[in-house]
Amino acid sequence: MKFDSTEEWKSKIKRVIISEEEIRKEIKKAGEYINSLYDGSPILLVSILKGAFVFMADLCREVTVPCEIAFMAAKSYFEGTESSGHVEITMDLKHDISNYHVIIVEDIIDTGRTLNEIKKILGVRDPLSLRIMTLLDKPDRRVVELKADYSLFTIPDYFVIGYGLDYGEFYRNLPYIAEFGE
Ligand code: IMP
Ligand code: MG
User: Fold this and answer.
1) Is 110 considered catalytic here?
2) Lowest-confidence range among 11-15, 66-70, 80-84, 114-118?
3) CATH of the domain at 20
4) How far is the CA of 105 from the centre of ligand 2 (A)?
5) What residue stretches are annotated with the Phosphoribosyltransferase domain (predicted)?
6) What is each CA distance from 176 to 62, 143, 147, in whole angstroms?
7) Distance CA 174, CA 154 (A)
8) Which of 52, 56, 83, 181 is the most exposed place for a label (fewest CB within 10 A)?
């Protein structure tokens, strides 16, 4: 992906659908949910790079109980615009998760295939518990049955950018969530 100018890059940010303020408000509540779940038991927040890096950075600062943070990277293979369900772990966790309550911190659940695979991969490692928290959920697009334990925003079938989410690796740095449009 290449842009001829900043103007061209900007022209594809169609409209803001979730503002910085709305995100901040929901993240506070999401932090309170984590705080109320576990009382001093070992928590591991696991974020899947790269899309969830901004969400993780803001969410973890709303957590006021002991927690550890870890990252893993996965490559989802796509067929056209949809993930195929074939997921390759390109960077794995260093933690033995059998001693932790694991919360997967994800940017968006679309077809559900990527997270469904990751959930299986982590599930067999026998964590004390395994939960999914997602910033965005597009339930209309789901092809495998997968529900997040906590979802901050449910959105229609738009392609969205910003706050960690990309189009061709760009727009992750936008502080809000916008609809992408050609
Ligand atoms: P799934 O396997 O279809 O649920 O795909 C999930 C992955 O596709 C997410 O982790 C994102 O990286 C990407 N994705 C799905 N929808 C969007 C979107 O609207 N904007 C940016 N990335 C998206
Ligand atoms: Mg992602």
Assistant:
1) yes
2) 80-84
3) 3.40.50.2020
4) 10
5) 26-167
6) 18, 27, 24
7) 19
8) 181
